[in-house]
Amino acid sequence: MKKTILVIVFLCFLSYSSAQQILRTELGNVFYGTNKYKTEYNSPEGTPYLNESFTPAKINDISKTHFVRFNGYSGEVEVKVSEGRVVVLNEGDFFAIKLLDGSNTEYQTLSYLDEKGKRKHSFFQLLSNSEGYKLYLKQKVNYYKEVKAEAYKEAQPPRFKPGKPEFYFSTANDPKELTLIPQKTNGFLKLFPEKSQELKKFIKSKKLKLNRKEDLMSIFEYLKT
Length: 225
Fold this sequence. Notes:
Elements: H1 2-19, E1 21-25, E2 28-32, H2 37-40, E3 55-59, E4 66-71, E5 76-82, E6 85-89, E7 96-99, E8 106-113, E9 119-128, E10 133-138, E11 141-144, E12 159-162, E13 166-171, E14 174-180, H3 185-189, H4 196-206, H5 213-223
Antiparallel strand pairs: 1-2, 2-6, 3-4, 3-7, 4-5, 5-6, 7-8, 8-9, 9-10, 10-13, 11-12, 13-14
Keywords: Signal
Signal peptide: 1-19
């Protein structure tokens, strides 16, 4: 019985090791695995990626151009190291990723607290880097399980679908601590008690919304004055 258990544990370890290998590269420790989401999630419709194709990018200060894509469901950044070979960046490390597609877009990998207060790690698009504040956009993709057909309910295949964008900011005093921006104005104003009244007037006069990135960029530009 004991031998049987040891064999099962060993086989499980081999299975995990073959699915995800740790490699030491110029990007630090990365994880190599197959493009597994199609089998793990029963060939769902849609995609967990912000863009299926890989985009040329500069990562940190490395001179070499890499090709990256972003998994909005897992929060992982994938790097194509050769044809048919993709690695995942280590979530414990910081990466600044600047796309070379003409968009001038920059992503950063950061830790954060989600809406349930759980510590997680993901990539964020840097929207603005004004004096005193950094504004970030988190683009999410949600996964929906298969729904069986019932009376008055149509069947739905398993699928990935873009979620609502979330916005975060950090301060110069604590640049690695991200704060989720509330969708309600009163909750947002409580984050800036010393400027709450003038900020309230500014938001109202400009008819700004806290769920629009252009409006938030205007608000944080105003905050530095």
